[in-house]
Design goal:
The protein starts with a helix and ends in an 11-residue tail after the last helix. It has 5 helices and no strands. The protein is 56% helix and 0% strand. With 137 residues, it is mainly α.
Length: 137
């Protein structure tokens, strides 16, 4: 009988018991987003510029009912959004220096990078971190 009194219910053995927004390892979503923003500051300058511009472009898609808030966003739609961001960035960079022409392969690599940056930004917004909410600069 005494042994039965020492057994804890399974839900009390987890460090996240009682936390509504708890994530893995018992950390709150805000802590995870703050860490994500801090590590983004460590990006190289060009990547940071792409990330900032990607966030600005995604601001236009940030409204209630947007495709970025779908439960399961369509991969094709997200790839098309990444293509639109790449097109905007390509026009902006070529507008700054018209004599600079990047090879298509270079932009294909940049497209992969921008797709990853876009997915990170979508993740951040879906978890409650709006643009500018966590700023360390």
């Amino acid at each position: 009988m005494d042994f039965e009194r020492r057994i804890l219910p399974f839900y009390m053995t987890y460090p996240t018991a009682g936390y509504e927004n708890a994530t893995l390892y018992g950390r709150q979503d805000t802590d995870v987003l703050r860490d994500l923003e801090y590590f983004r500051q460590l990006y190289p300058a060009a990547v940071r510029r792409y990330q900032t511009r990607t966030a600005e472009i995604l601001d236009k898609m940030d409204y209630e009912g947007s495709v970025i808030y779908d439960e399961y966003p369509d991969r094709y739609t997200l790839e098309r959004l990444a293509d639109n961001v790449v097109d905007i960035l390509r026009r902006e960079e070529n507008g700054q220096d018209p004599e600079q022409t990047d090879a298509a392969g270079n932009w294909e690599q940049k497209r992969s990078l921008i797709f990853v940056l876009l997915m990170n930004e979508v993740y951040k917004r879906r978890r409650g971190g709006r643009r500018g909410f966590f700023s360390f600069s």
